Amino acid sequence: MSYIIHYDVAALMVTLVVAGHFAIKKSVPSRQASMFAWVLGLATLANALDLCTIYTIENPNTIPLWANSLLNMFYLLTFNAIPAFYYSYLISWTKKKNEWTPVHYFRILSPYCISILLILSSPFTKFIFYFNEDGVYQRGPGLFTLYLIVIYYMICAILQVIIHRATLARAQKIIVIVFISSSFCAIILQQAIPNLLIIHLAIAISAVIMYLSLQNPENYYNQQFGIYNRVAFNEMYETYTSRGKSFYIIGLQVEGLIFINETHGMGAGNMLLKQIAEYLLSINGSNYAFHLAGTKFTIMKPHNIHNDPTKLIGELQQRFKEGFWVNGIKCTPSLSLCLLECEGDTIDLEDVLDMITYSLQEAASDSTTSFILATNEILESGRKESRLIQLMKKALHEGRFEVYYQPIYSVKDKRFTMAEALIRLKDDEGKFISPDEFIPLAEKNGLILEIGEYVFREVCRFTTTEKLSSYGLKSVDVNLSAVQCMQRQLHSKLTEIMDEFDVDYKFISLEITETAAVMSSDTLRFNMDELIGKGINFSLDDYGTGFSNMATIIEYPFHTIKIDKSLVWSAMEKPKSLLALKHSIHMVKDMDMELVAEGVETLEQTNMLKDMGCDYFQGYYYSKPLPAKDFLRLLASQKSEIQ
Ligand code: C2E
Ligand code: CA
Ligand code: CA
Question: Helix, strand, coil: what percent of the chain each, to 5?
Fold first, then answer.
């Protein structure tokens, strides 16, 4: 029988090109990559051996019979290993190494062991192949069993894809279908036309598709910066964890890139990142440096005596201090760093990525140190923050924020003449979340602007629809955050809303803290002048908690000073606080401003404050902050009492 070897030759060329490309383009050395290298290597070797055996079968006199027999055995052993490795490669997509059970090993190894036995015993049993007396190659009666074993692996592969279809990518599913269907067709064809050698071409085509779509080193590479990307990081992380040894990850975030982009252009920013990537790659033995996203990079290293993370962190900080030259300009971006120590497979990949993100955020926001240890606590608080942010966004979207009103008692009028609007938010289970928890977070990410506007609008709507002034109420206080005070158009926004609901400007009083005053001095002053000009009053909130209250009181035209509850409370216990409170009240009164004491909880406190000349009281002794309906009921009852 003379064989048609053209397809085999073409297949060999194709696999050689793929193998060459794969070897030159350094792929990330993950478990999947090494599995693929095995599949590719075996396919190339089997292909070459197939051509050799064809030659020796067609020209039996070229080598001794025993050598010919060995060569054929070697070929069959290699060829039959391909589906076994291919199946393992498939499993490696869905299972980490330490998740492989003895059942997996049994499923992979046992059929191949059977084929080994059948092949090695064939010279004696003549079951798979043999050479007759004339030295001519003959197919044995059991050759089909080898094909059955190949089909077994194909069925396993299909089942694997079906079971894990949810976790596999589309490309992965397509590859399995292509590989299996083309190999299956090739097997059938080869059975029908025994001299047509087509199976290796089917394998080669599958290898090409596999390489281009899944194992392509470019999938693992950020072309722009010439460094491994996040996909590579994910695979390397799994590879490291499956080794069960300790290793560490250093997260790096380059700060101040926005400034460089704005002043020198995006191109300069990208060049800087490229230089940083090159530097990270050049660090002694650290070819496992990755670009995660934006200005975030990581380095992954085994933890041993040669690899001390603290030394490396010192080196990184030193290098960044020296700066990078971009287009003749020296850039010294600051660097936030975090260190995550890993021991085998103890942390999920998703947790690791979140931990790095949150730790870098933390490191960046801490002005004293730019380095932080990534811990579970950071992960927990980061997750909590991001859940809270989501909740706030949802609450804004669905109008779930509520405004409560805490009445303020007037000593002169002997009734409630003012109230403070206080925001309330419930979580999905209906539990209240303290504003002290979500307001600072909303300030950090800018959501406070929307929240502040929501509260202000709600207060205006409530004031008008319920005709609050008819209950004898003279004004409602609304809290303004420092971030709001930094907006130059704040004044027009607020008056616009008041006009929309036809609210008397005098009915609204705005509370700001000393921090807001310090942070936004010029803009705040501008807004204050504009709004005071229209009749809106300002109160200084939390007096007695800051450092330079005096300067703030002198500098800004406040109408009212609100004494913080901590000062009220400590005046009951400490003589010095009592003196501070007494003199503060006198000073404020002498400056012709009004006084509200917060946190009044007892009759004793009320009497003390009354004796000192305080005008207004706000606190649980009088009323807690109330939902709008209850607040109206309270106002209605006091109205009827007066009448
Ligand atoms: P704040 O402006 O100092 O508000 C007064 C806080 O003291 C309120 O806490 C109020 O419920 C509480 N309080 C009043 N009387 C007593 C008392 O007798 N005893 C005790 N223990 N507490 C009393 P709340 O509502 O939890 O608000 C906390 C902070 O959240 C507020 O402090 C304010 O800084 C901020 N906040 C609340 N609503 C808003 C808002 O709409 N916008 C902005 N920017 N901040 C707000
Ligand atoms: Ca307040
Ligand atoms: Ca306050």
Answer: 60, 15, 25
Q: Could you give the CA distance from residue 590 to residue 352 in angstroms, rounded to a whole number? A: 59
**Which residue bears the tokens 């299996």?**
180
Cβ within 8 Å of residue 480, ≥6 positions away: 452, 490, 510, 511, 512, 516
Question: Is residue 408 exposed (0-12), middle (13-18) or buried (19+ Cβ within 10 Å)?
Answer: buried
**Left if phi > 0, otherwise alpha if psi is -120 to 50, otherwise beta: which for 414?**
left
Continuous segment of H or E residues that includes residue 562: strand 560-563
Would you call 554 exposed, middle or buried from its count of C-beta atoms within 10 A (0-12, 13-18, 19+)? exposed
What's the token pair of residue 627? 């939902």
**What element of type H or E holds 22?**
helix 6-24
Q: Which ligand is nearest to the CA of 447?
A: 1
Rounded to two decimals, what is the model's pTM?
0.74
Q: What are phi and psi of 78, to 5 degrees?
A: -65, -50
Nearest partner of 513 among 483, 491, 541, judged by Cα: 541
The pick from 392, 406, 416, 422 for probing ligand 1's pocket by mutation, whose C-beta has the most ligand atoms within 8 angstroms, reads 422
Q: Answer yes or no: are the C-beta atoms of 248 and 329 closer than 8 Å.
A: no
Distant-in-sequence, close-in-space partners of 600: CB < 8 Å, separation ≥ 6? 568, 606, 609, 617, 618, 619, 620, 621, 622
Tokens of 235: 């695979």
User: How far apart are the C-alpha atoms of 206 and 585, rounded to whole Å?
Assistant: 85
Write out the two tokens for 617.
Answer: 């009281």
The confidence score (pLDDT) of residue 190 equals 82
260 with 253: CB under 8 angstroms?
Answer: no
CA distance 275 to 453: 44
Per DSSP, helices labelled H in 285-329 are: 309-322
**Cα–Cα distance, 9 to 16 (Å, whole number):** 11
Residues 230-262 as b/e (b if ≥16 CB within 10 A, e otherwise) read bebbbbbbbbbbbeeeebbbbbbbbbebeebee
- State which amino acid sits at residue 348: D
Closest CA to 616 of 516, 463, 423, 475: 475
The rounded distance, in Å, linking the Cα atoms of 385 and 393 is: 12
The pLDDT tens digits for 330-382 are 888 999 999 999 987 778 899 999 999 999 998 988 767 788 899 999 999 99
Residue in this structure with the two tokens 């050479």, named with its chain if needed: 131
pLDDT in tens, 540-580: 999 988 765 788 888 899 999 999 999 999 999 999 999 99
* Pocket around ligand 1 at a 6 A CB cut-off: 406, 422-423, 434-436, 439, 452, 455, 479, 481, 541-542, 565, 598-601, 618-620, 625
CB 553 within 8 A of CB 591: yes
77, 116 Cβ separation under 8 angstroms: yes
Ligand 1 pocket test target in 396, 439, 441, 624 with most atoms within 8 Å of CB = 439
Q: Tell me the two tokens of residue 20.
A: 């060459």
User: How many CA atoms within 13 Å lie on the side-chain side of 575?
Assistant: 0
- CA–CA separation, 249 and 246 (whole Å): 10
